[in-house]
Amino acid sequence: MFFSATLNHFFFQGCTNSANMASTVIITGATGSLALEAVQQLLSSHPSLTIVGTVRNASKSPKSPHLLRLEEMAHQYPSSKLLIKSVDLNSISEVGAFSNEIADLVESNELPRISAIICNAFTWSLEGQQFSKDRMESTFQVNHLSHFLLVLRLLRSMDPETGRVVMLSSEVHDPEHPNAFSKLGAELPSDENLDSLIKPDADEAGTEHDMGWRRYANSKLANVMFMRSLNRRLQQNPQFSKITVTAMDPGGLVDSRAHAAQKSFTRVLFRLLAFSLPVTRLFTHKLRSNSDSARDVLALALAPEYASARGHFNGTKSQLPARVSEDAGKCEAIWQACWSWVGMKEDETCISKSYP
């Protein structure tokens, strides 16, 4: 589904020269709360970019109000370019097919080279386990595995001078950080039991909510570890060493639709926080709106001051990640497992399976 969209006189602050040249920006989960804000900001400020937004099903009828809003942006900005693509991240084969399609379009010059991949899409299940079409635990597959595959398959299609990958992290990725909404936080299994990330034992009765939070936290920790592992490999590759990877914690998004899955008390709390955000943000940087964090993620993806940035960020501020994500052995074990789970082959990417 291809749309044109128009230049608004408002420009995203911090835009870079490369962002003003023809290039492609991919953002997954384009109908998500943060992503819709990011797409609108891109369309209004970067008319030279081609934006590829992935959604689960662009042809589903009736269309969700969020997909309708995404499509309406095309009419609102008719001089910019928006390509809406159906990709179900619960299907490894669909992610592979999409990656091949985009790579072919870049190779044939029908799409400009990719300047940024923003791995935004996510899911969670706080009421029990959900499984993908590939019979893997859905939270880990959607939030991490499918992005692992997407990025590795598209590295050759990125601009080798200015390409950037932005992974979405979360405060709860850190096992040492208490989670105010769950008794359980991130906890990766032993290297011998990593398969439990995709084939977990059944939740014990009464633990579904907290185990759902753990699965979500583990997927975000895996994203941060992927950032580290991929940066190490890119820096060893002379041809692609200028491509950078960051992982960004967007903060507590008070107006995110994702809170609909939370407990009733938490939903009410976030509605109150959204109402009071103009005052609350004076005292803490942890609570933000979708619009705030959209600007942050686009800064990491496009702004000149982050052209060589690597590592973990809270918004646009550099932040140390969880200590376990600095464990080279654990990062490598997760990388090797994910490579196997998605069926990656050496000739499908420019990055090696094993670290030199």
From TrEMBL:
| E.C. number(s) listed in UniProt | 1.1.1.270
Q: Please provide, alphabetically and separated by semicolons, the GO molecular function terms listed in this UniProt record.
A: 3-beta-hydroxysteroid 3-dehydrogenase (NADP+) activity
- Pfam families assigned: adh_short
Q: Which GO terms describe its cellular component?
A: endoplasmic reticulum membrane; lipid droplet; mitochondrial outer membrane
Q: In which pathway does it act?
A: Steroid biosynthesis; zymosterol biosynthesis; zymosterol from lanosterol: step 5/6
Q: This chain belongs to which protein, by name?
A: 3beta-hydroxysteroid 3-dehydrogenase
